[in-house]
Structure to design on (133 residues):
């Protein structure tokens, strides 16, 4: 168990160092690094999964900074597409784990979907609705 924790910590730290090296030129990499740690804590991701998630997150962030959403509906569509892309990086067991199902309303209030929490934190920082002139 301790070995597993140390190994995942090494992966996150290694990824953080590689992302930090790129972060000078890409602010999206910094944002992705900041939020992917949360996902890794809950899912025990391997290096390839972290790399895949980081690539998808940076790609999503870059696309949104180049072309911001012009409406709430467009923002929701982009988040849904991003969620689908992120799920492609996870194995079936992890996909089941992030798709939290609630038995009743009280249970829903007590816990949030891991992936939804990531999407809210990352998406709020990345997606900026374009102001109309």
């Amino acid at each position: 168990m301790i070995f597993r924790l140390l190994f995942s910590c090494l992966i996150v730290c290694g990824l953080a160092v590689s992302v930090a090296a790129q972060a000078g030129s890409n602010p999206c990499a910094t944002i992705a690094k900041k939020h992917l740690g949360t996902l890794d804590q809950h899912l025990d991701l391997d290096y390839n999964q972290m790399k895949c998630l980081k690539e998808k997150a940076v790609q999503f962030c870059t696309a949104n900074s180049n072309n911001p959403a012009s409406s709430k509906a467009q923002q929701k569509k982009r988040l849904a597409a991003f969620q689908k892309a992120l799920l492609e990086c996870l194995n079936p067991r992890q996909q089941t784990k992030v798709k939290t199902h609630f038995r009743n309303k009280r249970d829903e209030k007590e816990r949030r979907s891991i992936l939804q929490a990531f999407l809210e934190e990352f998406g709020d920082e990345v997606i900026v609705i374009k102001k109309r002139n």
In short: Residues 80 and 119 are 9 Å apart (CA to CA). Confidence is low (pLDDT under 50) at residues 19-24. Residues 2-126 form one domain.
